[in-house]
Amino acid sequence: MYYICSMRSRKMYNRVAILRQEKGMSRKELAEKIGVNFQTVGYLEREEYNPSLDLAFRISENFGLPIEFIFSTEPLKPLIEEIIHLKNKLGEL
Amino acid sequence: MYYICSMRSRKMYNRVAILRQEKGMSRKELAEKIGVNFQTVGYLEREEYNPSLDLAFRISENFGLPIEFIFSTEPLKPLIEEIIHLKNKLGEL
DNA sequence: TACATTTATTGTATTTATACAATATTTAGT
DNA sequence: ACTAAATATTGTATAAATACAATAAATGTA
Fold this sequence. Notes:
2 copies of one chain form a homodimer.
Chain A: E1 13-14, H1 16-22, H2 27-34, H3 38-45, H4 53-63, H5 67-70, E2 71-72, H6 79-91
Antiparallel strand pairs in A: 1-2
Chain B binds a DNA duplex through helix 3.
């Protein structure tokens, strides 16, 4: 199915899938916690559409992480790279 | 004009108006910088609707401030209260 | 292997964010 | 007070987020 449309928003990348998996949650469980349909979580994880700002806040609150850590306009690095990066910064001191 | 609708998102509060005014910008100017119609800025400042996540990011980037400082699900305190609060915290040390 | 759970796919419907136009009202500058 | 600029109001149109249903595919487990 093809859609003809012009784009208003940039594509957003996110870490919802990894964060959810690290907590051993299913999409259904996460969906219930953040108050959306479980299929909506699927769309978000596949980055097929961007969450509303409120939904981004609910996800951020759920994981206890700032929005900017979970969502980005740039592709997000795997968590392991983030760790290495932080360790290196620490090592410099 | 009345609309009948069920609500999916919480109302979001924001500091767009004050932040813009502190920079001495008009809505039109801000609108150009963040790439929306100037009337959209009006809607946002009046909190008549929530921005998309991408727009929130663009606003955040424009002001150089984290999303959580500009947007909140709770009514936001005036900046002056924020300052007093921070000064008190500093005084405690 | 069979069964159950999770995830993906496709399709339709509704709500909300955004654009844009036209006019009214407010505010600031002379 | 007059004028220009900024903001508000109202209305219509489109795009994107979300819900929901049904089915298919994948994955895990007895």
